[in-house]
Amino acid sequence: MLALPDVTWLDICLAGAGVYLLKQVFTKKNPAPYPPGPPGWPLIGNILDMPHIKPRLAFAEWGNKYGDISHIEVLGQHIIVLNSIKTAMKMLDKKSSLYSDRPVFPMAKLAGWKDVLPLLPYGDHFRWHRKNFHRVIGSRTAMKVHHPLEEIETHRFLKCVHVTPGELMEHVRHTAGAIILRISHGYEVKENHDPFIELADRALDQFSRLTIPGAWMVDIIPSLAKVPEWCPGAGFKRFARECNGTVEEMISAPYQFVKDQMAAGIAPKSLASSLLEGRTLSAEEDHMSKWSTATVYAGGADTVGPSLH
């Protein structure tokens, strides 16, 4: 009987590198050239150029050097950086049917994020979510409805800044989350240590780690997703399981809060209540509604704060 050799994590990595090299040799190259960008290295591409701290500064520098559209490659994954609002609007708004598709992150999928709008491929679910967002924030008329609550939260923000000016960014982050949670779920946040704000912060911190290009071998070799959690080197599977718990709590807890408020007849108007009111949803529709509201709640809190900063 033949004895099978022990397979180490190094063997798997070397095999993966070999598969990648063969793919590079035999895969037909894209006939259209990519936009300009910093030169990369064989095999690893621009992984050494990829910024992990304040990436906006590096992206802005590339914009000054290479123009409004620049390109890098990290371990076979091509990344396009847009460095002007005009270019971003032209590509992502006016030509959305061409550029609305999303990158594939097997690690994020393992961690429970496959249904969040930024990672959804262009299709029926993507259009359904976008339609929901347009109802609450997609026009001047829709935004006018939210002006009173924005004014209330702005007054609270100014009061907090007056009392503790040294905690300005904490107040900005808290206010952004407060406004978004009112819009998405009709939820009024607590002044300090609100559980839903802290939950979103934890989930978004994990999401940012999950989607760093080149950070996870499973993004380079998707078949590693089938590796058992107990296998040496499969720590990424344990981290994905931890993230799954956080994601499930983030999308379900505020959504259930709205359902409970509606059952009690005291739910204020919100995206979640408008999706649930007077309707009997199928399991799939309920799942999609939950993700629509969670995307507004998480995505809004993640972008408004940095924008104000």
Automatic annotation (TrEMBL):
Pfam families: p450. The lineage of its organism: Eukaryota, Fungi, Dikarya, Basidiomycota, Agaricomycotina. This is Cytochrome P450. It comes from the Eukaryota. GO terms for molecular function: heme binding; iron ion binding; monooxygenase activity; oxidoreductase activity, acting on paired donors, with incorporation or reduction of molecular oxygen. Its cofactor is heme. InterPro entries: Cyt_P450, Cyt_P450_sf, Cytochrome_P450_fung. Gene3D superfamilies: Cytochrome P450. Keywords: Heme, Iron, Metal-binding, Monooxygenase, Oxidoreductase. Belongs to the cytochrome P450 family. It comes from Rhizopogon vesiculosus.
